């Protein structure tokens, strides 16, 4: 949700693709499948919503353990997709212009026929393995909330 404000804040030269140069902020709200909000945070109108998805899941004050999170295109980044999986969340995305995106998979031969047009290549498994301790440490830090 976008809320216009009376004047620009500290970042006056920022333009939002959706709201233009109108000053304001967004309220990012997590809503359960029973339509009850369980996390809400104010974020700048000019930033991606993606990092705030994990904030709401990991630091909600009602103690809800969410297994599945839905988000639209504004909530999509490769990093969020990977981190969500590491943290035990099933991230379900509605991605605009999906045919123009490319997915990288571990074994292209086992990709379902319907999805093969989206495969851009093979994931660099060696890079993931080489950086696994840092990736794991990052996920543990997020879980601990520090």
TrEMBL record:
Coiled coil: none
One Gene Ontology MF term: transposase activity
GO BP, sorted A to Z: DNA transposition
Tn3 transposase DDE domain: residues covered: 6-146
Protein name, UniProt field: Tn3 family transposase
